[in-house]
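Propose amino acids for all 352 sites.
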């Protein structure tokens, strides 16, 4: 079984929801239950050795639009969120990440060395990521605190606007050039992430925001869970021009398993063949090279192909790629080594 280090999941959102309903998030993760996509037993069964675990403040008002007779849809952007409720929820999810670590249910990793050690020990290697920085004020004080708590990666925006920048809607077909880019505070956030060694994730940001980060950051460009706009023209996917910029920076694209970002018709439908995933991977590998592509499942955050079903089915994608002609070295890069190279670069670790 090929170990996979994955670029994006929402297991912390699921565990946080479970805790609000009176459950025990540590027990749910460690022992596993039959809901959602990731827990320790299913991760082990599917060779999911670790990944970036998103802290995401949910938008209660978001209702996904139904496609019209042509299959087109535009889900209006969720409303901006307030700082203090967002800070409370973000703190609660970070607390779950820390409790899982303390209980030994997973290992919260700060370095690539930590990740390699956890993978060798057979313990889920979690990296704390914030998806949409609504919990952080323009003074960036909270950024410093979350960094001390283990935060090593963030996306300035989710698919909504905040004080740092603008996100793209869930819409098909649509260009990612939907709104302005970074604000003044957003540029400051990028510079501070560079200083601290926090990876910046370009998933969900507008195309203008993408170029604003590109001209500011000293890191390779990374979109942790995005696919090819040329194949599935949703606003969340990356245009060829964006892919070329990622290649030029020796950055990375994490392939998203969300069927709405893989299918020709951009529908959320579990009845989606793995060939749609292979098609996006082939296209992006052709465009950016095998060193700049990896996985960003969106487990626990999206409708994924039924054939994979959950983390336990993760090796089915590896098998499909092997069948499509990817050799052992290429598969190792796609499964983990490309992510570890990027994280080492963003975190400024020498030869991790
Ligand atoms: Zn996302």
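Proposal:
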């Amino acid at each position: 079984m090929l170990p996979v280090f994955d670029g994006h999941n929402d297991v912390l959102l699921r565990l946080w929801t479970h805790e609000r309903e009176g459950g025990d998030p540590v027990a749910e993760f460690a022992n596993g239950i039959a809901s959602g996509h990731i827990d320790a037993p299913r991760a082990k069964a599917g060779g999911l050795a670790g990944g970036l675990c998103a802290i995401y403040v949910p938008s209660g008002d978001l209702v996904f639009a139904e496609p019209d007779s042509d299959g087109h849809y535009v889900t209006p952007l969720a409303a901006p969120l307030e700082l203090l409720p967002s800070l409370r929820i973000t703190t609660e999810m970070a607390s779950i990440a820390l409790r899982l670590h303390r209980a030994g249910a997973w290992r919260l990793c700060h370095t690539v060395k930590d990740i390699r050690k956890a993978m060798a020990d057979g313990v889920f290697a979690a990296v704390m990521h914030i998806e949409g920085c609504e919990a952080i004020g323009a003074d960036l004080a909270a950024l410093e605190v979350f960094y001390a708590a283990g935060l090593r990666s963030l996306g300035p925006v989710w698919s909504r606007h905040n004080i740092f920048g603008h996100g793209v809607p869930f819409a098909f077909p649509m260009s990612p050039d939907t709104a302005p880019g970074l604000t003044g505070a957003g540029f400051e956030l990028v510079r501070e992430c560079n200083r601290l060694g926090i990876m910046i994730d370009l998933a969900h940001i507008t195309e203008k925001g993408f170029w604003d980060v590109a001209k500011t950051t000293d890191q390779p460009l990374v979109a942790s869970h995005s696919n090819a706009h040329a194949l599935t023209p949703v606003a969340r996917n990356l245009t060829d021009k964006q892919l070329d910029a990622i290649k030029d920076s020796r950055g990375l694209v994490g392939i998203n398993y969300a069927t709405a970002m893989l299918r020709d018709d951009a529908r959320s439908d579990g009845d989606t063949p793995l060939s749609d995933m292979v098609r996006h991977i082939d296209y992006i590998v052709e465009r950016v090279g095998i060193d700049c592509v990896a996985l960003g499942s969106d487990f626990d955050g999206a409708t994924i192909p039924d054939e994979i079903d959950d983390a336990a089915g993760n090796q089915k994608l590896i098998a499909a790629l092997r069948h499509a002609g990817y050799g052992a070295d290429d598969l190792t890069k796609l499964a983990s080594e490309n992510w570890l190279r990027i994280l080492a670069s963003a975190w400024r670790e020498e030869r991790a």
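The pocket of zinc ion is lined by residues 131, 203-204, 225, 301 (CB under 6 Å). Residues 120 and 174 are 43 Å apart (CA to CA).
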